[in-house]
Structure formats: structure tokens, C-alpha cells
């Protein structure tokens, strides 16, 4: 019995020692700040943690810089616990500098460092859209008849301007009786979403399939084998670049970014009149707008009145023009002007009206050398403008005056299309100057226009192909245009148009083209896009 008691006492003592040992070990972990079950750190822990902090900080800053599309929507990035408040603040500051989408201008829809989208996917999407030809809201506002007004909007990537245009269209009287055709040369989900959100009329999107976006490294984009712009033609054979035989009239080789607008304009017109099923037999009017235009609320009412005058009194008119450039001569104070230079004021900074050398591709970077045309916003000018809101004039179509808010029918388009060779081979990267060449040198009867002297279409684009200002401000011009329309509100929706003839002036002569269109590949592609029937 005594032996059994001794054995039990030994077991109790042994159990007490084990419990004491466990308690001592637990206290050691608590004193070191480690959690139970955590592996023991070696003496280099502080240095390792410092290095890890720097690496994690860089990683977090990089994740902050990610664009919204580069991770799943709604994904939350939690800060690492080892990041200090200072590091978090610095990372947030880095994010501000890295930037979300810029709301100012230049108005690209995405930052330049956005990951490149798969061009094959874009080409597939474009083919699907152009094949399916889905008309949105057709069940509500359709069908399209010859009395429907088709409004074709040429879109690049300036979302801010496009939003303003769409807003102005939504406020226009009778807009529900139109079909809006948005013709894009950039596939952009944000722009697509905006267009597809339109609920006030029928819409359809078409996509120019030969864009720089889908052909960045091959024609019609810029191929590595293309001749540099400023390469001397005499030296080009030795370099053996692709287009060394085809410099423009100024000795410069093509720049893809300047050729796309003319290609797009020609493709769009051909596609609407010949390949768009809803318009294949359409004999009504097509209005041509661009993403940086803005329309008055009575532009369709005014268009209808112009059509009435055209059909009943001015059958010779080919083109109805809803926009105009408000201009006035303003010579520099030193009066030392280039020969033939007549600076026009146009507040919208359009280069039309400048001499050819001023519109050459090289001089676009030196635009400030010339007196820019500015719209006069002073009360005397506005009072003069208000008196013109019910007036129109008829005369010969001139590209520098009548290229904004143009409207014409299939009959006129067929006249233009029959001169496709002259349009496609004329050495000028501007579609309007090329059309001027067609009017003067190909058509038996030159194009005639009826133009509203009080504009219903305004150009609000401060930046674009012709405009390289670093301080572009879309809101500034937009506010001025809205001010004009607000002031002219009581003069809109005229009951009758007063139509007169343009004053007799010197015979219109087309000056030397602006170049940028000497490459035979551009000529061939343009002609190949021309519909036969």
C-alpha cells in the first residue's frame, strides 16, 4: 500500500512539473510578443522586416497605379499591416499623380499607359457590329423611312466633346424622328457605353475597319519599313523604305495619323449609302456631324425649312449647311503679313482660311505664328448675329466656309462618288479640301450650297488634328456657345426663312493642296473603299 502511495505521489509531481514547464514557455512567448503557434524568428528579423516593408510598399503603390480595367470590378486591395501611415499617404499621393482618366484635354478616353488591347479581339468585335447592324430603340422610334433624317456622327476618342454633342441632340425638337449613326475609328468601351445609353431616338454604330488602333504597325498604320516623314526624297532609295517613290507635293512622306480622317470620312459615306441595310434604298437627307460639334435645339426645324426652300425655290442647291464660321478680318498691328494671308476670326480655332503653307503638316506645330481667328463675343457682335438667325444664303460651296453640319441626299452623293478618283488621289489629307477639288475639277456643275447665316451647328473642339494648343479647354468654348444660344433663344424656330444670294466675288480657285496624301497606298485603299453601285 505504501509503495502505491509513493508511485501516485511521483506521478502527481511529474504532472505538476509538466504544467509548470508549459506555463513558463507561454510567458516567454508573451514577453517576446509572439502569438502561440508562431515560428520562432532568428536574430535577423528586424532587417528582414525592413526589406520586406520596402518591397510591399512598392507593390502596393504599383497596385494603386493600376487602371480600373486591369483588375476585377469591385476588387478591394487591403493595405498590408506593415505599412506605416506615412507610406500609405505617399502611396495615395503616387496614385493621384499616376492619375485616373483625365477630365481635361487632350481628351483621350484612356491614359497612354493603359495596357494594349488585343487587336484581334477588336477586329472581331468590329466585324460583328458591322455585320449585325443592330438598331437600338428601333422598336420604339422606328421604322426608318425616307422622311427620317439620318444623322451621321464621325467619332474618334474625345469623350468629353461627344457627351456634349449627345446632350445637345437630346434637347433638339423632333430628334425622335431621326436615326443617329455613330461611325467610330476607335473601339472604346466607355464611348460604346455612352452611345448605347441613348434613349431618345434610334441609334446604330458602325466601325471603320482600317483604323490605326487595329493596324498600329502595318499599313494603313505606320510600318517600320515606311520612310521617315522628313527623309529627303533623293536619299530614300538608298534606305530602301517601302514608300520612297511617293512623297507628297512638299517632299514629305506620309504620316498615318493625318491620313485616317479622310479615309474614315470616305468609308463612312460609302458605308451608309451602300452597305447599311436600313439606308440601302434611302433617298432622304443625311446630316454629317463630328464628335466635337454642338447643335441648337431648333436645328431640325431649321433643316426642314431649308429643305422646303430647296425643293420649291432653289433646286440647284446640292448641300444644306447648318453651321458657319463667324469671321472678321483682323490684321496684326505691325501689318507685316505674308502675301495672300487673310487671318479670319473663328473663335473655334479652325485652320480653314489660312494659306496652304500655314496648314501644312509641319506648320501645325507653329500655329501661334499666325493671328488666330476668334469669335467676337462682344454685345455689338451678338446683336448683329441675332439678326441673322432667320437668314440663309445660296451660292457656290466653299470648303473653308461650308464644311460643318453638311446635309445632302443620295443624288448628291452619287455625283461625288463618280469623282472618286479625283477625291482619292488629290494630295491633301483633308476630306473637305479634297471635296473642293472634286467640285472645281470634276463636276460639270460645281457644288451649290444653302447656308444658314445664323449657325445651328457649332464647333466646340479646341483640340484635334489641326489644334495643338497645350491649354485646350472644352468648357470655355462650350460656355460661349451656350451663351450665344441662350441670348438667341427668342430668335430660334423662325416661322419663315429669308433666303438671298451670296454676293458676287472673285472666281473660286483651289490653292495648292496641303499634302500629306502622296502615298499610292492611300490612293488605292481609298478607291477600293468606293462602292460601285
Radius of gyration, in Å, reads: 33 Å
Overall, the morphology is extended
Helical percent range?
25-40%
* Secondary-structure element string: HHHHHEHEHEHHEEHEHHEEHHHEEHEH
Distance between the termini: 121 Å
Strand content of the residues, in percent? Answer: 5-15%
The structural class is: alpha/beta
Name the poorly predicted regions: 28-114, 327-378
Q: Which strand order does the major sheet show?
A: 3-2-1-4-8-6-9-7-11
Instruction: Give the helix tally.
Output: 17
Q: Tell me the number of strands.
A: 11
Largest sheet, described in full? 9 strands, mixed
Average of per-residue pLDDT values: 76
Describe the model.
- The protein is an alpha/beta fold and 533 residues long.
- The protein contains 17 helices and eleven strands.
- The strands form two sheets. It has a nine-stranded mixed β-sheet, sandwiched between helices. Strands 5-10 form a two-stranded antiparallel sheet.
- The radius of gyration is 33 Å and the shape is extended.
- Mean pLDDT is 76; it is low at 28-114 and 327-378.
Short description:
With 533 residues, this protein is an alpha/beta fold.
Q: What secondary-structure arrangement, pairings included, does this model have?
A:
Layout: H1 2-32, H2 45-65, H3 85-98, H4 119-132, H5 138-141, E1 149-155, H6 159-170, E2 178-184, H7 189-196, E3 202-207, H8 236-239, H9 256-275, E4 285-290, E5 293-295, H10 299-312, E6 319-321, H11 356-359, H12 379-386, E7 391-396, E8 406-409, H13 410-417, H14 420-425, H15 431-441, E9 448-452, E10 457-459, H16 474-487, E11 498-501, H17 520-528
Parallel strand pairs: 1-2, 1-4, 2-3, 6-9, 7-11
Antiparallel strand pairs: 4-8, 5-10, 6-8, 7-9
Helix pairs in contact: 2-3, 6-7
Amino acid at each position: 500500500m505504501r509503495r502505491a502511495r509513493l508511485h501516485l505521489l511521483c506521478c502527481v509531481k511529474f504532472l505538476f512539473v509538466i504544467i509548470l514547464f508549459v506555463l513558463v514557455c507561454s510567458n516567454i512567448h508573451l514577453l517576446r510578443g509572439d502569438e502561440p503557434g508562431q515560428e520562432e524568428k532568428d536574430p535577423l528579423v528586424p532587417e528582414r522586416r525592413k526589406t520586406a516593408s520596402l518591397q510591399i510598399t512598392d507593390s502596393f503603390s504599383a497596385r494603386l497605379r493600376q487602371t480600373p480595367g486591369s483588375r476585377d470590378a469591385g476588387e478591394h486591395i487591403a493595405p498590408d499591416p506593415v505599412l506605416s501611415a506615412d507610406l500609405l499617404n505617399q502611396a495615395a499621393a503616387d496614385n493621384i499623380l499616376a492619375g485616373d482618366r483625365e477630365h481635361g484635354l487632350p481628351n483621350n478616353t484612356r491614359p497612354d499607359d493603359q495596357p494594349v488591347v488585343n487587336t484581334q479581339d477588336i477586329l472581331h468585335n468590329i466585324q460583328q457590329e458591322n455585320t449585325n447592324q443592330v438598331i437600338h430603340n428601333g422598336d420604339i422610334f422606328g421604322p426608318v423611312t425616307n422622311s427620317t433624317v439620318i444623322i451621321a456622327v464621325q467619332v474618334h476618342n474625345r469623350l468629353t466633346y461627344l457627351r456634349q454633342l449627345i446632350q445637345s441632340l437630346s434637347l433638339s425638337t423632333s430628334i425622335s424622328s431621326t436615326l443617329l449613326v455613330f461611325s467610330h475609328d476607335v473601339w472604346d468601351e466607355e464611348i460604346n457605353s455612352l452611345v448605347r445609353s441613348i434613349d431618345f431616338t434610334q441609334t446604330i454604330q458602325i466601325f471603320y475597319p482600317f483604323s490605326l488602333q487595329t493596324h498600329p504597325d502595318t499599313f494603313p498604320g505606320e510600318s517600320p519599313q515606311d520612310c521617315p516623314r522628313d527623309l529627303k526624297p533623293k536619299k530614300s532609295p538608298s534606305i530602301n523604305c517601302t514608300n520612297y517613290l511617293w512623297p507628297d507635293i512638299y517632299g514629305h512622306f506620309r504620316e498615318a495619323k493625318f491620313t485616317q480622317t479622310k479615309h474614315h470620312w470616305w468609308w463612312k459615306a460609302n458605308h451608309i449609302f451602300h452597305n447599311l441595310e436600313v439606308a440601302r434604298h434611302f433617298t432622304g437627307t443625311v446630316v454629317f456631324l463630328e464628335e466635337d460639334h454642338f447643335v441648337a435645339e431648333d436645328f431640325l426645324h431649321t433643316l426642314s425649312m431649308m429643305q422646303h426652300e430647296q425643293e420649291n425655290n432653289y433646286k440647284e442647291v446640292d448641300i444644306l449647311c447648318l453651321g458657319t464660321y463667324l469671321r472678321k478680318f483682323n490684321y496684326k498691328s505691325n501689318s507685316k503679313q505674308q502675301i495672300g494671308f487673310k487671318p479670319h476670326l473663328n473663335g473655334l480655332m479652325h485652320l480653314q482660311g489660312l494659306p496652304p503653307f500655314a496648314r501644312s503638316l509641319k506648320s501645325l506645330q507653329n500655329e501661334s505664328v499666325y493671328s488666330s481667328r476668334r469669335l467676337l463675343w462682344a454685345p455689338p457682335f451678338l446683336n448683329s448675329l441675332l439678326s441673322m438667325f432667320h437668314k440663309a444664303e445660296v451660292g457656290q460651296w466653299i470648303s473653308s466656309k461650308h464644311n460643318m453640319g453638311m446635309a445632302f441626299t443620295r443624288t448628291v452623293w452619287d455625283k461625288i462618288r463618280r469623282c472618286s478618283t479625283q477625291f482619292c488621289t488629290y494630295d491633301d489629307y483633308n476630306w473637305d479640301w479634297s471635296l473642293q477639288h472634286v467640285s472645281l475639277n470634276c463636276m460639270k456643275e460645281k457644288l451649290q450650297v444653302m447656308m444658314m447665316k445664323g449657325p445651328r451647328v457649332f464647333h466646340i473642339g479646341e483640340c484635334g488634328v489641326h489644334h495643338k494648343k497645350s491649354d485646350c479647354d472644352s468648357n470655355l468654348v462650350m460656355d460661349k456657345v451656350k451663351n450665344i444660344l441662350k441670348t438667341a433663344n427668342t430668335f430660334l424656330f423662325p416661322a419663315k426663312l429669308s433666303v438671298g444670294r451670296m454676293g458676287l466675288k472673285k472666281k473660286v480657285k483651289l490653292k495648292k493642296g496641303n499634302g500629306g496624301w502622296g502615298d499610292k497606298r492611300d490612293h488605292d485603299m481609298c478607291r477600293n473603299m468606293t462602292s460601285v453601285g
